[in-house]
Amino acid sequence: MKVLTKELILESNGRRVTYHNITEQVKAFVEETGVKNGLCLVQSQHTTCSVIFEEFMHDLDFNGDDYLQVDMNAFLDRLIPRELSENTNYRYPGPAHKDFLFSLSHSDHPSDPAVLLNGDAHIRASMFGASETFALNDGLLAIGVVGSIYFIDFDQNRIRKRVCRIQVLGE
User: Fold this and answer.
1) pLDDT at residue 101 above 70?
2) In whole angstroms, what is the distance from residue 137 CA to residue 142 CA?
3) How far apart are CA 160 and CA 26, in angstroms?
4) End-to-end C-alpha distance for the chain, whole angstroms
5) Which of 16, 45, 52, 89 sits in a 20 to 30 Å window from 162, CA-based?
6) Position 164 pLDDT exceeds 90
7) Rounded to an integer, what distance in angstroms lies between the CA atom of residue 25 and that of residue 158?
8) Nearest by Cα to 136 from 4, 12, 21
9) Does 93 sit behind a cis peptide bond, omega within 30 degrees of 0 on the bond before it?
10) Predicted confidence (pLDDT) per residue in 121-139, tens digit
11) What is the full DSSP assignment across the chain?
12) CA 137 from chain center: how many Å?
């Protein structure tokens, strides 16, 4: 059995929820591996990001977001409001957590505590989960005709690079 891994580096836009349709990159990696039957795991290593399987929409708004994503964001904004200032909607981040994050020498957190006002992003990502697993049959992802794989960054506080890991297992 083969186990092969690839990382995609994706950039968030930092001003709104970022959706990356990574379907073609995942398909290309599956083909590159030569695995015919097995599993394909697509996973985020970030606690404010999710991987989802959803229908591809052909209609886009002026931001380039498809209508299904716009609808999902509108629903989530009503359910889980943005954390725009300290001590409003969320207890996160607490003082001990801020101290911990700012003490890390390898941290990608700038010294501005406002970038930590992303409790909403953590809750949203927890609801959707960090990964999706797909069956591979005869070298193809079992995702149907309109199924697409999206990497979502729910953190809207700053531009940054995100890692999406693809792992193919099989023979």
Assistant:
1) yes
2) 7
3) 21
4) 5
5) 89
6) yes
7) 25
8) 4
9) yes
10) 999 999 999 999 999 999 9
11) -EEEEEEEEEE--SSS-EEEE-HHHHHHHHHHHT--SEEEEEEE-STTEEEEEEEPPS-B-TTS-BHHHHHHHHHHHHHS----STTSS--PSPHHHHHHHHH-TT----S-GGGG--HHHHHHHHHH-SEEEEEEETTEES-TTTEEEEEEE---S---EEEEEEEEEE-
12) 25
For the chain, the C-alpha Rg in angstroms (whole number) is 18
Residue 54 has pLDDT above 90, yes or no: yes
Tens-digit pLDDT profile for residues 78-98 = 999 988 777 677 777 787 877
| Two structure tokens written together for 124 | 């949203």
Structure tokens that stand for 112 in this block: 């501005």
∠ at Cα 42 (162, 32), nearest 5°? 100
Output the average pLDDT for the chain. Answer: 91
Residue 108 to residue 163: CA distance in whole angstroms: 13
- Residue the block writes with tokens 């930092």: 14
